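Pilot study result, target chain (280 residues):
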Amino acid sequence: MEKLKNSGTIDNHKDSYERAFDSIADDYDATFDSNPVTKQLRQIIYDSVLPILNENSDVLDISCGSGTDALTLASDGHNVTCFDISPRMISYARRKLKDFPYADLRIGSFENLHTLPVGSFNLILSNFGGLNCTPDLRPVFKRCYELLKPAGHLVIIVMPPVSIWEVISGLTRLNFKLAFRRMRKNPVVRMNNSSVPVYYHSLRSVRSVSRKLFNVGIVRGLNVLSPPPYSRKFVSKHPHVSAVLSKLDSIFGFTPITRAMGDHMLVVMQKDKTGKDLNY
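Predicted structure:
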């Protein structure tokens, strides 16, 4: 796999990511969306997103996948525009949103956000690590700032560079590759027969990039101590332990330091009302 350069442009190696996500589209809902841990996570995310929306808000869903979030938002009465790099993912999203004729679903990557009109959205959402496919959040955040209406919100769910669950899980099994996989140089994620680069974004980097654009509000770690969706066997084998760990997450997910060390990290930001200079 060719190494991605950490440049100032939005470079996500479109063909590689398209093939990778196309390869998992057919089984995505069965393996990921049907997972009870995933459903619990989505509810946590919706509890943060839906209250900040007014009636009939305009929402942009970046890296929408098979359209589960878009369907929830559309069913709540909002106008949804969706982007995903995978044509197969978009085909599944279209099926889910067939009863919402005004939903706008487009095949495209971060590079295609310029095709949308400035000041169009009340909320932009990027769920479950979509932004971990780009090495540089800066151009994405700048474009999101431009696309948002005054006081609009950007909500991202990204994978941070350290996951407490992964570290502990790996060390207890003497699997050091798992324990420290996010800290490796040039990490990749394998999807069936495709391998693509992944870029882990820390809370510090999110704050740095958003600094002149957004005011950071809610920060919450997801699956800090509790098993993430890929640990389905652990949840089945240890349901009571998993339930206790999930309750502990309601504390450690908001605690400074540990909130930035979950399997994913939820960050809710609001567009700076002063309209600061974007040349930075």
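One observation from the pilot: DSSP finds ten helices and nine strands in the chain. A full batch analysis is planned for the follow-on phase.
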